[in-house]
Specification:
This protein is mostly helical. The protein contains 10 helices and no strands.
Length: 267
């Protein structure tokens, strides 16, 4: 265990950990607004002060993030997945041209955002229960803060750096290339599997707003699955920063013109 921990670059870990916790803080205004619209009986839960709540959330998520970032850093290095800009900055090595990493992320993310808005509008919007309509009324700054910072950083640390690296490493133990790293097929299967898990991971938040229906389950799997495949591909081919940039770009498209369009189409 100790030799493995020594392979973790402290400065890289600190940057990722700080970014992950920042994302946890960033999602709180959105979540509090969303939960405030849920029907909750008086006295149904314990009274807790906001500072204590924030402290508990940070403690719980800090422990989780520390573990997943450490494991993700170890496994990603073993299988050749990269975070070239962050590592170059932390180590003082020559950095690649940021445009070659960030531009594909921004462009793919924007395209994904547009596709998701279109799929939502065409197939799911008019089938959403009324209890989900208030999510379109949450202030833009809260939606952007949650999507860009929590989605773009914290979710990518959990889903791509940790989970995709883990699944690809596991598949690569049997499905490996001559250099002992996972084959192209192993990476592709891992990307799809993690995209499905990404979709399933959004179901608890959906269930909190009302009973899950077949339409809502399919919606979560389709929308998040499309996004998960795209972000997984960016991580695999361009690095973690590209996946983060893609996630952020997708949310800008979804939360600004996307929500404006969807609100205008609501019955």
């Amino acid at each position: 265990m100790i030799p493995l921990l020594r392979r973790i670059h402290g400065k890289v870990f600190a940057v990722l950990f700080a970014g992950g916790l920042l994302g946890v803080l960033a999602v709180l205004p959105y979540m509090l607004d969303l939960l405030g619209n849920l029907p909750v009986e008086r006295g149904a839960g314990p009274d807790i002060s906001l500072p204590l709540l924030v402290g508990l959330v940070l403690l719980q998520n800090g422990i989780l993030l520390a573990a997943v970032i450490a494991i993700g850093m170890i496994l990603s290095e073993r299988i050749g997945l990269r975070m070239p800009l962050i590592r170059a900055w932390a180590t003082g090595e020559a950095a690649p041209n940021p445009r070659t990493i960030l531009l594909p992320g921004v462009l793919v993310g924007a395209a994904v955002g547009a596709v998701l808005v279109g799929v939502e509008a065409l197939f799911f919007l008019r089938r959403l229960p009324d209890a989900m309509h208030p999510m379109f009324e949450i202030p833009l700054w809260k939606r952007l803060l949650a999507g860009i910072v929590y989605g773009g950083i914290t979710e990518e640390l959990l889903m791509r750096l940790f989970l995709l690296s883990l699944v690809a490493w596991l598949l690569g133990r049997w499905w490996k290339a001559p250099d002992e790293r996972p084959t192209t097929g192993a990476f592709r299967v891992a990307i799809v599997l993690v995209a499905v898990l990404f979709g399933l991971g959004h179901l608890p938040a959906t269930a909190a707003m009302g009973p899950l229906t077949h339409v809502l389950v399919v919606r979560a799997l389709v929308l998040n699955g499309i996004a998960g495949v795209a972000f997984g591909y960016l991580y695999w081919r361009h690095g973690l920063e590209a996946a983060m940039a893609g996630h952020m770009s997708a949310h800008v498209v979804m939360q600004v013109p996307g929500v404006m369009l969807l609100k205008a189409m609501l019955p």
